[in-house]
């Protein structure tokens, strides 16, 4: 284990040096890098390093949640001026966190890590007979998928970005920004190609990965690695971002038809909000995410949503960095007998799963609260929650969205009810049975808001919804002017004179 950690760390150093021209990577560094690729342990460290870089890029400065949840303006920040700047869309503000989140270097570390792996892994196959053809094929598919995912993630944040699919022997070449349409077409093609070689399950007798993956059983890998279903789940998101709703429906249907082959499934409302439930460690229901394993001493006080949201009485922190005002909670959670959150006739919270301290000054968003090893001691601020990009409920609701846009309102409601009936008290009929006189699309997005709150989806959902409806003049102006994207870091613009700033931020 320690050897793998060291290898992953070394890979990270190599990759990051390749992404920063100022470090002037020399030829001896490149030779040393190539000499790494000799054993099956090197291959394992290499692919795990790409996963580690992806997790790091998403969690750095709590970026995944600031990009996806804080920017919507629905949460309030009592004291952090940098978060207030994000909430008010003042993304040119001179705060270290805002500037850091404008810098895409950490995402190009993923790209370069995958490029280095893809260019060198064949040498492992040539020098170590323990590294089988199947092992290499599956590893290559994962690297290609993670590289494509990094580009999809960047495009949603910055729009057009430089397109690099070669490590260029460790030298980061300055390139201009490439059309996001071209990049997204490549992302879709690349993910489809990767999906052909990805297994449904690792170390579980899958025809595409029949033996124990790196000599460890299926419990080691469930929820930790990209599967065939993972690829199709992310493909559904890619298609939704490009408004290709026929393919959204198709890709999401593949997930619905095959999630059982991965060992995954729906998550109960209790498990979703338990400190040792869905977000704890890793499990097969985490369709695509990045876990922090307490048993491996793999947690921290930062890089988890709990750092932003938790405070007294959940932890000893006096004031949360962000909170949802009570009026907003009551507005969003307006569905009868919703076990995620509802109030009784006296105005008291009946279920404290999503929110704690409702009537206090700061209602605490406590849906995700994996403290230490899934415990509840408020004195600890050591978090081990998994960062989840997508899960089954997300994809079912995404297919509902697609069917609604395509005109199949009855089919859309059926998909919606697959989620809602798991969120209301037992024997409670769904409030949405017939599409007549219902704004089905609006209801679907309202349910996505409730179900996926705190999972980094909301900002992108708002963009898609407004692109479909086009009836919010202020938001449409933001879309049409490019204001939905982040500015490019001033540091990057100084380093690369081929880059141009997003017009909205000039």
Describe the structure.
With 506 residues, the protein is mostly helical. Helix content is 49%, strand content 2%. It is built from 21 helices and 4 strands. It has helices spanning 2-18, 27-34, 40-59, 63-70, 81-87, 96-101, 105-127, 133-158, 180-197, 218-221, 228-241, 245-258, 269-273, 305-309, 326-332, 392-405, 409-420, 440-451, 458-469, 473-480, 490-495, and strands at residues 288-290, 355-356, 364-365, 387-390. A two-stranded antiparallel sheet has the order 1-4. Strand 2 and strand 3 (364-365) form a beta hairpin. Helix 3 runs antiparallel to helix 7 (105-127), helix 3 runs parallel beside helix 8 (133-158) and helix 9 (180-197) packs antiparallel against helix 11 (228-241). It is globular, with a radius of gyration of 22 Å. 47% of the residues are buried. Mean pLDDT is 89; it is low at 1-32.
Order of helices and strands: HHHHHHHHHHHHHEHHEEEHHHHHH
Number of helices: 21
Average pLDDT taken over every residue:
89
> Describe the biggest sheet?
2 strands, antiparallel
Helix content: 40-55%
Strand order of the largest sheet: 1-4
**Strand tally:** 4
Q: Indicate the proportion of strand residues.
A: under 5%
- Based on secondary structure, the structural category is mainly alpha
* Alpha-carbon distance between the two ends: 48 Å
Low-confidence sequence ranges: 1-32
Q: What oligomeric state do these chains adopt?
A: single chain
Cα shape: globular
Q: If you compute it from the alpha carbons, what radius of gyration comes out, rounded to the nearest whole angstrom?
A: 22 Å
